[in-house]
Amino acid sequence: MTEFFAAPRMEDKYSKKDIMEFYCNTNYYANRSYGVSEASRYYFDKEAKDLTIWEAATLAGISNNPSRYDPVAHPDTSKWKRDQVIDNMALCKFITREEQENAKAQPLTVAKVYEGGTTENYQTSYAIHSAVLELMKNDDFVFQYVFPSKSSYDSYKEEYQEQYQAKRYGTQGRI
Q: pTM of the entire structure?
């Protein structure tokens, strides 16, 4: 309900491109992965800019329903959704028929790159993530969603990750 009332104000302040970037940088992709960059590293051990068509389609599919299309827990369902996204990309002419066929022919493999294991469920993971963000806000961390250059994004990303890790794990262990 909050999103329903907030949407018009966001559209007045931000462009659709900015809103989409914000969404992609904060959306949950299962397995403690928030944002496309983190999901790219977890599932494929690479940066988002380096994803193949089938990898990008997999992430797009996961974002629709993380618990249902998680390729670790539900590889068959995830592959089905990935192929559906690829078909839609071809239908909208974002990719060629040959790219569509090649992407769908790829096996669904994931890297599962993460630090330490956990048995956190989605609710616990989200609660911890939200608490960490609040701790960062309390320490006056300025969140950014739009960047004038790649170097400013890289600098922000490094500072964000450092602050996030410090708040989440600190010197006393995990929260």
A: 0.63
